[in-house]
Structures are given as structure tokens and as C-alpha cells.
Automatic annotation (TrEMBL):
Transmembrane segments annotated in the record for this chain: none
Alphabetized Gene3D superfamilies for the sequence: 1.10.10.350, HUPs (3.40.50.620)
Gene designation per UniProt: gltX
Motif ('HIGH' region): 9-19
Catalytic function, reaction form: tRNA(Glu) + L-glutamate + ATP = L-glutamyl-tRNA(Glu) + AMP + diphosphate
Coiled coil: none
Pfam families assigned to the protein according to its UniProt record, in alphabetical order: Anticodon_2 (PF19269), tRNA-synt_1c (PF00749)
Motif 'KMSKS' region per UniProt: ranges: 241-245
Name of the protein in its database record: Glutamate--tRNA ligase
Presence of the UniProt keyword ATP-binding in the record: yes
Residue stretches making up the Glutamyl/glutaminyl-tRNA synthetase class Ib catalytic domain: 3-309
Length: 460
């Protein structure tokens, strides 16, 4: 069997990290099994769906490298197919028209709740042998209801939750077409999954209640249902369900804030799945290790501090030549023209940064004038150290411009003045980069043009 998975978001709000995890796992499973990953946009909620939300879905997936093999399919473009299946189901007696008004349905539910019964449609319009149906009201367009089995159980072995069994007596006859003939969500999902040959449905556990109804529809249409894996909810940092209403950011905002796609994939993968105690891993390792047997059963909680730590580890591990092109646009947005030194400068600074924006902040110091705070200048640029800075500047005018020679010049000034390295290095850093804390001073100076270093030292 060829594995076929899908991600089927509804474009009714900007997709956040909790949503995109429901794309990551089916994508990873398809890739790990040599299968096919399908993108399907469930856009039948015309009032709430928007093209802007679709764009964020597509942009977010492209940024994270969650490439799809088929699609995107749009449900609104498949209406003719849904209506064809509805006609076939009517011909087979699998659905029936229901003329119960919304007001009557509400009254029925109120009576049931008053009697402490579960609110559910009571089958008034369900045809049964020997049953007399009410007279059809004039001028009323019916909904179509699916004839759910009236006895027995519907069961499945969920890859996350284990065995789940529901009595069919608990399920009422679901509306699968509205009065205007447009199909409803649960019906469209089943037709899509059949037509697209979906073998594994990996989605959030907010869909668990839909699953028994969908399984019954699969079987009514002569198909065995796919394997289901219902993922626990992702919570925000306050322990609430992650949602736009609760302050969740669109996925693309993490891109804009300087996070690396591979780091976000790494972090997201651990929000509900594990491979032993491994915290940091590459995309290739993730795809090699991923399976459905190690999905977690409990809700995972988002922690931005942990995401930043994971991002910092990936920044440190990234080759300088690969990191520089990610920092370059950040510099260009500030009007800074970088040069061939950029990869080397990124390599010097990446260990102290957690995003590419933080890295660009540091790198910019090598390309634009800097000004240390008055506090830093007063603390480090004392009358006692100024002669040593002048001596160093004089030596740097003629020394070979490479790390070893620069290091030797620093040591020679220390020998001549009796200063300790921090007493000389910190004021030089303040003058050259505007801060007393930098990587190794000889490497910093080597990465800057000689004339810039001399000009900045002259401000002592």
C-alpha cells in the first residue's frame, strides 16, 4: 500500500503553529514512507474564508519546506462532484430529506435538555418500513440527512488514542446537505478522502467527534476508512488552546522574526512526538526517525523561550556560507550593503544570537558607524588606557592584516604598558563595535577593514 496523507486546513483564520503541526506530521509520515502528501483547502465556509488566509497557509508551508505532491485542491471547485455523490446516495436510500425547521429543531433540543437527555435529532423524517411520515410542508426546502446505522457500534484503533468505540445509538442522522443543496463539512471530507485515496488521516483531536460519523459514511459508500491518528491540542504559554483569539501568531510571523525553518520544524516535531531524549535534530534525521507509534497522548504546551533555544542551536550549527544569505536581506532592509566578509562575520557572531535578526543587529556594527553609550565610554575609556590605544593604532597601521599579526600587536602593547588584556581589549571593543562584549578581539579586528578600525580607534 502506498501511503497517502493530507493536510486539509480551513482558511478562516491565519494559520498558527498549532495548526501547522497538523501539516508537519502527515507530511513527515508520507516522506518517511515514500508516500504522497496532498494539500486540500477546505473553503466551503464562504463567509469566513479568505484569500489572505490561503496565502498564509501556502507561504507558511513553503517557508517550512512542507512541500505537497498534489494540490492544492479547493473544495469549492469540487461542488459538482459532491452533488453527484449526493444523488447516488439518494438513489441508494442512504440519505433522506428532512423538513424539520430550525425552530422545531431548537424546541426539540430544549425538551431533551429539560429531560436531561442528550440533544439529538429524533428521526422524525427518517423513512422506516410501516412508518407514516408527517405531511411535507409547502414551500420548505429540506436538508438531506445521512441514514446512520441505528444499532451496533462504530470503532477504530486510533494511532494516538488507542481503541475507540461509539454506539450508533449515540449518533443521530447527520445533515450532509443544506436546504440550498450545498454539502456540509463531514460529507465533503469523506468524498475527498475517498477520491484522493487517503490512507492515513493525521489531524487534531477536535475532530474525534466527527470520526464515527465519517467512518459510517465511508462504509455506506463501500469504502474502508483510513487509519486515524488524532493529535492532542497544542496549548499556548498560559495553558489555553492555541488560537488566534488567544494571541497565537501566524506561522509567517516566525519567519519575519528571524527564526530558521529547520529549527521551527525541529521544535514543532517535539510538540507531540519524540525520539528518545533527542532535542536537536536535522530535518533528515526527523524524516528518518518519524513514525506514528511515538506520538504523544497528552497536550503539548508551546514555549517561545524553548523555541528560541532550539533556534540558537540550529544557528550555531549552520555553515557560515548558508547563514549569510539569510542575514543579507535583513541588512539590505536597513540600507546596508554587505560584502564578501559577510559569511566570516556571521561565523564570528552566530554563537551569541538566537535569531537572524539578532545576528543582523551584530553584523551591522561591522558595516555602519557605531557609537558606544556614554556609560560604556566613561567606564572603559580612561586616561590611563588612552596611550595604549594610541600605541596599538600606530602598530596596526603597518602590521599584516591577519589574525596572528593583530594578536601579536595586542600582546606587544600589553608588554610595553603592563596592562592586562581586559584593560586594553574592552575599551578597544567599545570604540570599534560600540560594546565591551564581543568575540575574540583579534578575529573582530581582522574582519574589519584596516582604515575603519583606525578611524574608530582615533575616537578615543
Amino acid at each position: 500500500m502506498t501511503v497517502r496523507t493530507r493536510f486539509a486546513p480551513s482558511p478562516t483564520g491565519f494559520i498558527h503553529l498549532g495548526n501547522i503541526r497538523s501539516a508537519l506530521y502527515p507530511w513527515a509520515f508520507a516522506r518517511s514512507q515514500g508516500g504522497t502528501f496532498i494539500l486540500r483547502i477546505e473553503d466551503t465556509d464562504l463567509e469566513r474564508s479568505s484569500q489572505a488566509a490561503v496565502d498564509v497557509i501556502l507561504e507558511g508551508m513553503a517557508w517550512l519546506g512542507l512541500d505537497h505532491d498534489e494540490g492544492p485542491y479547493y473544495q469549492m471547485q469540487r461542488m459538482d462532484r459532491y452533488k453527484q455523490v449526493l444523488r447516488e446516495m439518494q438513489d441508494k436510500g442512504l440519505v433522506y430529506p428532512c423538513y424539520m425547521s430550525v425552530a422545531d429543531l431548537d424546541a426539540l433540543r430544549e425538551r431533551q435538555m429539560a429531560n436531561k437527555e442528550k440533544p439529538r435529532y429524533d428521526g422524525t423524517w427518517r423513512p422506516e418500513p410501516g412508518k407514516q411520515l408527517p405531511p411535507v410542508p409547502e414551500g420548505v426546502q429540506p436538508v438531506l440527512r445521512f441514514r446512520n446505522p441505528s444499532n451496533g457500534i462504530v470503532a477504530w484503533d486510533d494511532k494516538v488514542k488507542g481503541r475507540i468505540e461509539i454506539s450508533n445509538e449515540e449518533l443521530d442522522d447527520l445533515v450532509i446537505a443544506r436546504p440550498d443543496g450545498t454539502p456540509t463539512y463531514n460529507f465533503c471530507v469523506v468524498v475527498d478522502d475517498i477520491d484522493m485515496g487517503i490512507t492515513h488521516v493525521i489531524r487534531g483531536d477536535d475532530h474525534v467527534n466527527n470520526t464515527p460519523r465519517q467512518i459510517n459514511m465511508f462504509r455506506a459508500l463501500g469504502q474502508e476508512p483510513p487509519v486515524f491518528a488524532h493529535l492532542p491540542t497544542v496549548l499556548n504559554e498560559r495553558g489555553e488552546k492555541m488560537s488566534k483569539r488567544n494571541g497565537a501568531k501566524p506561522v509567517t510571523q516566525f519567519r519575519d522574526e528571524g527564526f530558521l525553518a529547520d529549527a521551527v520544524v525541529n521544535y514543532l516535531a517535539r510538540l507531540g512526538w519524540s525520539h528518545g531524549d533527542d532535542e536537536i535534530f536535522s530535518r533528515e534525521q526527523f524524516l528518518q526517525w518519524f513514525d506514528l507509534d511515538h506520538l504523544g497522548r497528552s497536550a503539548a504546551q508551546f514555549d517561545e523561550a524553548k523555541l528560541r533555544w532550539v533556534n540558537a542551536q540550529h544557528l550555531k550549527a549552520m555553515p557560515d556560507a548558508d547563514l549569510a544569505p539569510l542575514v543579507l536581506p535583513r541588512l539590505q532592509a536597513r540600507g546596508i550593503a554587505a560584502d564578501e566578509r559577510l559569511p566570516r562575520i556571521c561565523g564570528l557572531l552566530k554563537d551569541r544570537c538566537d535569531t537572524t535578526i539578532a545576528l543582523a543587529d551584530w553584523v551591522a556594527r561591522f558595516y555602519v558607524p557605531v557609537q558606544a553609550s556614554d556609560e560604556e565610554r566613561a567606564k572603559h575609556l580612561t586616561d590611563g588606557v588612552r596611550p595604549a590605544i594610541s600605541m596599538l593604532a600606530k602598530m596596526l597601521e603597518t602590521v599584516a592584516w591577519e589574525k596572528g599579526a593583530i594578536s601579536e600587536s595586542l600582546k606587544e602593547v600589553l608588554r610595553a604598558t603592563g596592562l592586562k588584556m581586559p584593560q586594553l581589549a574592552m575599551p578597544v571593543r567599545v570604540l570599534v563595535l560600540g560594546t565591551a562584549q564581543t568575540p575574540s578581539l583579534d578575529a573582530v579586528l581582522e574582519a574589519m577593514p584596516r582604515d575603519v578600525v583606525l578611524q574608530r580607534l582615533s575616537a578615543a
